[in-house]
Design a protein that fits this description.
alpha/beta, 3 helices, 19% strand, cell projection, flagellum, Flagellar operon protein, Flagellar_put
């Protein structure tokens, strides 16, 4: 092989390596964007009705409770739940799992002598 052939081979290899690096970086960026979108979908939303009930019933949502709710909804999602009652020390939260939305909530006192319909699962936290 002559000097020109070796130079051309090295140049071609470096171009190929650069292309592979760009491709990996591109995949990494696309993966990161998908992860960000997935995390945004994972955030629990509260309907207007649920927000009103929280205010009326004096239920405060702190970061710990929100994290516990999100974890409970994730567990319900893994089991195929659509509408879940998440029951904890602060009360009960009815969550539409596909929409990731709390649709209503009630305090411990409000839960006494109640019948809950249109839920397919319950998670205790």
């Amino acid at each position: 092989m002559g000097t020109n052939e070796i130079h051309n081979l090295n140049h071609a290899q470096s171009l190929g390596a650069g292309h592979a690096a760009r491709r990996q970086t591109g995949d990494g960026i696309r993966g990161f964007e998908e992860l960000i979108q997935e995390k945004a979908r994972d955030r629990l939303n509260f309907s207007k009705h649920a927000t009103k009930r929280l205010d009326e019933r004096g239920i405060a949502i702190d970061n710990r409770l929100l994290g516990d709710l999100e974890h409970a909804v994730d567990e319900a999602r893994k089991k195929g739940s659509k509408d879940v009652a998440v029951i904890g020390s602060k009360g009960m939260f009815i969550v539409n799992v596909p929409n990731n939305t709390v649709v209503t909530t009630m305090s411990q006192d409000d839960m006494k002598n109640r019948i809950f319909t249109n839920i397919d699962s319950a998670v205790f936290m």
